[in-house]
Write a structure and sequence with these properties.
- With about 900 residues, this protein is mainly β.
- The strands form 14 sheets. Strands 1, 30, 31, 35, 38, 39, 40, 41, 47 and 48 form a ten-stranded mixed beta sheet that branches. A four-stranded antiparallel beta sheet has the order 4-3-2-29, with no helix packed on it. A four-stranded antiparallel beta sheet has the order 5-6-7-8, with no helix packed on it.
- A hairpin with a 6-residue loop joins strand 47 (about 730-740) and strand 48 (about 745-750).
Length: about 900
């Protein structure tokens, strides 16, 4: 491995644990005449709202913050209630609310669960004392609080909001503070998270003056396509009461202001200084929209819930702005107040039922509703007389085509499925927020990290130019791929970050893996292509000039592999499939160039170097005309001593393929599963597989970590060589293309032989393609991958032999004798040493023809098979020719094979 190793990411899917959101909502208020606040989970769907699972809490004036957070360890959300002296963790089990409390002190705000703590859930909380604002982490399993991590003194004032937001793959802690009437947003970065938090530099943005005692609301959203970054959205009134909506985003690692808006609210003037904001994908286009809500008067109706719908719009020169799409105002029935006390918002799919093409957890579940949930506190005239008010909840839909709320008339609209969920004192406020404590949503559990070290991939197969060995050639053709050791040739390779679901994901939880993948694709992009650092790129270097041996370019990269279980706890406790995330470990790969005959590779040549006829009528492996890199050109090999040179450069490139990227095939299991892609390789090195198959099955086509492309600087040079006589002229047509299934670069050839002397040059010969045709050792020279093996269900093996007629005439009486046993050498000739199992024959083999003969055999691992090719007329009427070849079962056993043949004494007679 070259290059320095990169820091290991803690958890690559930080803040991306919820794959499919199905929501209820939580409401906390003080019932009329009660001393303590009460928690209710409210089921919200097409049948309306139903408060269930009540739980009494402390006095409401003791509650400092309430949040719902996704607990990846339990695969559900919990509701966290922070009071002056404790944190209460609320869940649901068997139709009842569950609660666990831990003592705390001096804490004011809940941030979120720490996504880097994958062993146990840890809740992040802000506190404040006389010296500073500080951050603490609560182990939700033991109640242990970490030591306070003090913020720099530059972060001062009152904390008015805190959350985690995603910058690329990292979660950042964000805290809003107000000091001397000035509102600031502070990005603490990701170093404050994890088991060993530390304070680094703080990025502070001043948003300006804020009205005294006003509500500052903050949320995250994914407003921009083509990036995995989330945006931070802040709403607040300035000292004059003007609504300010500010969107913050990242430029590299710096949080900056992206867009601001001060919308005109004259259609429904606000009644207070509380502006709420929520975000979600209401249009189904893969990005979020913003909804801002506030208590307002509309057409003389007081206590309305006014709503504004925004999207982030791309402008010229990379600028962005907030575009207001629609506005709306809603009231209670009879134009009674809906939000005169307070207003809270949520956006999402409410209800457990799924779209019609999918299966709900419960067959009789009511239809789910996508929209804006408005939870308001208001009072009718009769309620005012009694000193009480109602918390009401209803849904406002959005037309995904028109991008609008329902049309408004001269009176406020009525939310759908409006339900009275709680009666409270008129003077008291309430908390309301979306949540899923029962596990209706699909959630990723904590990941398991493994490492795949030095995993190889095939980048290029470069075949030597065809020639005829013997006395016809003066010089052989050559191919040069590259220019110099230090200069690279325009063939790029990138190691990408990828994610993929196991094939069984979603089968029993009612949501397809494709639907789940859409969420990941919206957040991170397919294969994380929305990340700025999505790949590690390096140019392929190759400067070898070849004339005899085919070459293979290999590429090795080590990977981190995280495996996440996929849960939908409302349907079943066990995970339903897994999601694998694969990242390169190092910035630079290891590249090697080896002979194609290397024992670690199961190279299967159907042509043989030095046998010109073996290229005639042979189609290049994995060839598709649309993936040609250079236009086809023929080169003649004549008796001209200087030969000719064919230079493949920018001028010959197929223009539509310049800089086009091709994915190089990965094996998700091991090397034995590679051969489906091609007939060119029978096996690959054991370290090629990513080993994702333990307990799960992943699609071979979905995991593609490596991308290969070329630029106009690629240069390949072929020189023709020459023959001794013009009568032996032949033509070479180099094919330079990307392999259709493997994605690797291929250099192959077609051959034509117009020379007039070829017809008399060849005598009859039937042969197999030898892997080591240039070896002087008889055993190596006899090894042939034209001998292949096919396993049968009954445990036997079919031994298949492809014979080739290396002549321009028909050959009669061709046979193959099959021997079980290793070859040996007698009088420097290869000879079978085992017993003959059987014989197969052909009456006729056409000129340059190929045919396959098979024999069923019983073979064990590392058994060897000798094949004797027999042709011609047997004695006494003629002379029969015998050529001996051999193979080993399975072919991958050749990687561990060593020559141990013993030369037997010569036979007498």
């Amino acid at each position: 491995m070259t290059g320095s190793q990169q820091p290991q990411p803690q958890n690559p899917l930080q803040l991306g644990q919820m794959l499919y959101e199905v929501l209820d909502f939580t409401v906390i208020g003080t019932p009329r005449s009660a001393a303590a606040a009460r928690y209710n989970r409210v089921i919200c769907n097409a049948d309306g709202g139903s408060p269930v699972e009540p739980l009494d809490l402390q006095a409401q004036d003791q509650i400092r913050d309430v949040k719902a957070a996704t607990n990846m360890h339990a695969a559900v959300q919990n509701v966290y209630v922070l009071t002056a002296d404790k944190i209460q963790i609320i869940g649901s089990e068997y139709g009842k609310a569950t609660s666990r409390t831990w003592p705390v002190s001096n804490l004011s705000n809940i941030v979120d669960l720490d996504p880097q703590q994958i062993q146990d859930p840890h809740l992040l909380l802000f506190g404040q004392d006389a010296q500073s604002i500080f951050l603490q982490s609560l182990d939700c399993s033991t109640g242990h609080l970490s030591s306070p991590l003090c913020l720099p003194t530059t972060v001062t004032g009152r904390v008015v909001g805190a959350l985690l937001a995603r910058n690329q793959l990292d979660a950042h802690a964000i805290v809003c503070t107000v000091h001397n009437g000035q509102l600031t947003v502070n990005d603490l970065g990701s170093s404050v998270l994890g088991a060993n938090p530390a304070m680094s530099s703080v990025n502070t943005i001043s948003l300006g003056a804020v009205q005294n005692s006003a509500v500052v609301d903050i949320t995250t959203a994914s407003l921009a396509a083509g990036t995995s970054d989330q945006q931070v959205v802040v709403t607040y009134p300035d000292p004059q009461g003007v609504l300010n909506v500010t969107v913050l985003g990242w430029t590299k690692q710096t949080l900056v202001s992206v867009a601001t808006a001060t919308p005109d609210l004259s259609f429904a003037p606000p009644e207070g200084a509380a502006f709420r904001v929520a975000a979600g994908d209401l249009l189904g286009n893969g990005v979020d929209q913003l909804v801002v809500g506030y208590s307002a008067t509309y057409q003389s109706v007081k206590g309305c819930a006014a709503l504004l719908l925004f999207e982030l719009e791309e402008g010229a020169h990379g600028t962005q702005s907030l575009k207001q799409l629609s506005k709306y105002a809603a009231a209670n029935t009879g134009s009674q107040p809906l939000a005169s006390i307070d207003l809270h918002l949520a956006v999402g799919l409410f209800g457990e039922a799924l779209p019609p093409d999918q299966t709900a957890v419960s067959a009789d579940a009511p239809a789910g509703v996508l929209g804006v949930l408005v939870v308001g506190g208001g009072a009718t005239f009769d309620q005012l007389m009694k000193g009480e008010a109602s918390i009401l909840a209803g849904l406002v839909p959005v037309d995904a085509v028109e991008k609008t709320f329902p049309r408004l008339n001269n009176s406020p609209g009525l939310p759908q499925h409006l339900t009275d969920v709680m009666t409270i004192d008129y003077q008291s406020g309430f908390f309301a927020l979306p949540s899923d404590v029962t596990g209706q949503s699909v959630i990723l559990g904590p990941p398991t990290l493994s490492q795949s070290v030095g995993k190889g991939q095939l980048l290029a197969v470069i075949q030597a130019p065809p020639f005829e060995s013997g006395d016809v050639s003066s010089s052989n053709p050559t191919l040069t791929f590259g220019q110099s050791v230090s200069k690279v040739t325009g063939c790029n390779v990138s190691s990408n970050k990828v994610w993929t679901f196991s094939q069984d994901t979603g089968r029993s939880i009612g949501i397809s893996g494709q639907t789940l993948g859409q969420h990941v694709n919206s957040s991170y992009g397919y294969g994380f292509d929305q990340l700025d650092d999505y790949s590690t790129s390096r140019l392929v270097q190759s400067t070898t000039t070849i004339s005899v041996d085919d070459l293979i370019v290999l590429y090795a990269m080590s990977y981190y592999v995280w495996t996440y279980p996929v849960y939908r706890k409302a349907g079943q406790d066990a995970p339903d499939g897994t999601m694998a995330v694969i990242f390169p470990m190092t910035p630079e790969p290891v590249q090697s160039i080896i002979p194609a005959s290397d024992p670690s590779l199961g190279y299967i040549p159907r042509s043989q170097n030095g046998v010109l006829l073996s290229y005639v009528n042979l189609q290049p492996d994995g060839y598709d005309e649309s993936q040609l890199l250079f236009n086809l050109t023929n080169m003649s090999v004549t008796n001209e001593p200087s030969g000719s040179t064919l230079n493949y450069d920018q001028n010959q490139m197929v223009s539509e393929n310049i800089s086009k990227s091709f994915m190089v095939h990965n094996s998700t299991t091991d090397s034995a599963h590679f051969s489906f892609s091609t007939t060119l390789l029978d096996y690959i090195p054991i370290d090629f597989g990513l080993d994702l198959s333990e307990g799960q099955t992943y699609s071979e086509s979905d995991v593609q970590t490596t991308m290969l492309s070329h630029t106009t600087t690629m240069n390949i040079t072929v020189t023709s060589g020459s023959v001794k006589d013009i009568g032996y002229e032949y033509q070479i047509a180099p094919y330079i293309y990307y392999h259709q299934t493997m994605g690797c670069l291929m250099v192959s050839y077609k051959v034509a032989m117009p020379g007039k002397l070829w017809a008399s040059y060849y005598g009859p010969r039937v042969m197999l393609q030898s892997l080591y045709s240039n070896s002087t050792d008889p055993v190596l020279q006899g090894l042939s991958r034209s001998i292949s093996f096919q396993d049968n269900d009954d445990g036997t093996v079919d031994v298949n032999v492809e014979v080739f007629n290396n002549s321009l005439k028909e050959i009669q009486n061709v046979g193959c004798e099959f021997y079980h046993g290793a070859p040996t050498v007698v009088d420097s000739k290869l000879t079978p040493s085992g017993n003959m199992v059987g014989r197969q024959g052909l009456e006729t083999l056409l000129p340059t023809g190929r045919a396959t003969m098979s024999m069923n055999m019983s073979l064990q691992q590392k058994d060897q098979v000798v094949v004797v090719v027999v042709y011609g007329v047997p004695a006494p009427d003629g002379m029969q020719v015998r050529e001996v070849y051999w193979g080993i079962y399975p072919p991958s056993a050749f990687a561990d094979w060593h020559a141990q043949q013993v030369s037997l004494p010569a036979r007498e007679g």
